[in-house]
Specification:
By secondary structure, the protein is mainly alpha-helical. The protein has one domain: Creatine Kinase, Chain A, domain 2. It is 48% helix and 10% strand. Helix 1 packs antiparallel against helix 8, helix 3 runs antiparallel to helix 5 and helix 4 runs parallel beside helix 9. The chain is globular, with a radius of gyration of 20 Å.
């Protein structure tokens, strides 16, 4: 695995959320150390600003925000293909991992493996079983509401932009997929957003969205996506993993980092595509099932618990084979705890019992983020 040159960014939208971007380090050990350090700094910053008290808890997976329909998403105006999409995405909290890879062939082996494994990552990290509506917090009846919110935000876009990431084997394959998605986007543009401000929005290259010939890499909203705009020193692209939900605790976030990194290591080091259970599709349908039932889900007849253990063995092999034996031990322990105690959604519901008072929810979430379960 090669290091990314992404800069460290610490962004705070004072009214509504904290967005933290920790650059990819040389290895997963450095990444997890940085994750620990930067998130703890973010907690202190949120506490000093007082936002945790007056806007809902400022943190990822279990954030309980007020109605976001009226939010003008300043952080998203240059990255989303419509203001409506940007507004909808303010309710989607995710853990995103950008992986630098040593060469093009390895990059697409990593992409194809993680594309299939993505629903498993969601089942492990699902942590949003609550919904705020009608002035109160309620049990949503699912382990993660993020896929529902994601689908709502993407509903006006062509399927090629977000629904099911395709199998890709090369930059040429990627460019063809982007060309198709771009054409579908241009075809659908007149009906997507009638607000006049949409027509005057500009992308990061200074081109109006309605005039751009090709979507930028960040404008296809696949859960796993190639990022040629995130080059590293040995390859013309990186692979971005976007788990649609963010765990409650730092230790769980670190476990997800290890899990993804381990799968990437073994996929990158192989001379052929990583062999994974045939039931895995990486489709939106499988993500939705993982969001609905978490670790209790079944994908094409195979239980999620069994799938976790199968992929865990591969991730451990990847970490050990790349010289990260301590991380492999920590990964096994972390996944074991999630399988034994449940994902964040199940643990939160047990901790709350029948008390869904907003103050209680915020207090529990804050305690877990600061101290763990």
């Amino acid at each position: 695995m090669a290091g990314s040159r992404l800069s460290l960014v610490h962004e705070v939208n004072g009214r509504h959320m904290v967005e933290l971007n920790v650059s990819l380090k040389k290895n997963v050990t450095e990444l997890n150390s940085a994750t620990w350090r930067e998130i703890r700094a973010t907690i202190l910053l949120a506490a000093r600003s007082g936002k945790a008290a007056d806007e809902g808890l400022v943190y990822g997976g279990g954030a309980v925000l007020n109605n976001t329909e009226g939010i003008v998403p300043r952080l998203y105006l240059t990255t989303a293909a419509s203001e409506g999409f940007g507004r909808a995405m303010t309710t989607v909290k995710s853990q995103q991992i950008v992986l630098g890879v040593s060469d093009e062939a390895a990059a697409f082996r990593v992409y194809n493996a993680l594309r299939l494994v993505s629903p498993i990552v969601l089942a492990l990290s699902a942590s949003s079983p609550l919904i705020f509506e009608g002035g109160r917090i309620a049990n949503a009846g699912v382990d993660s509401i993020r896929m529902q919110q994601y689908a709502k935000g993407c509903a006006r876009f062509p399927a090629e932009m977000w629904l099911d990431p395709p199998t890709l084997g090369s930059i040429a394959d990627y460019n063809r997929s982007m060309a198709i998605a771009s054409q579908r986007f241009r075809d659908a543009l007149p009906a997507m957003d009638s607000r006049p401000e949409f027509r005057t929005m500009y992308n990061s290259a200074g081109i109006r969205f309605c005039e751009q010939e090709r979507l930028e890499p960040h404008q296809v909203f696949w859960q796993v996506r190639p990022r040629p705009d995130h080059r590293n020193d040995r390859c013309a692209l990186s692979i971005e993993v976007r788990s649609p939900d963010l765990p409650f605790s730092l230790s769980e976030m670190q476990t997800i980092n290890r899990f993804v990194y381990g799968v990437a290591c073994i996929a990158a080091s192989s001379n052929q595509q990583l062999e994974l259970p045939s039931c895995l599709e990486g489709s939106f349908v499988q993500h939705t099932e993982a969001a609905r039932l978490g670790l209790r889900a079944s994908l094409n007849g195979t239980g999620m618990g069994e799938l976790v253990k199968t992929v865990l063995a591969l991730a451990i092999e990847g970490l050990n084979g790349s010289g990260y034996s301590k991380e492999a031990v920590s990964l096994e322990a972390g996944i074991g705890e999630i399988l034994g105690e449940g994902n964040g959604a199940q643990r939160l519901l047990r901790a709350l019992g029948n008390d869904l008072n907003p103050e209680t929810v915020s207090n529990v979430c804050a305690r877990v983020l600061r101290r763990g379960w």
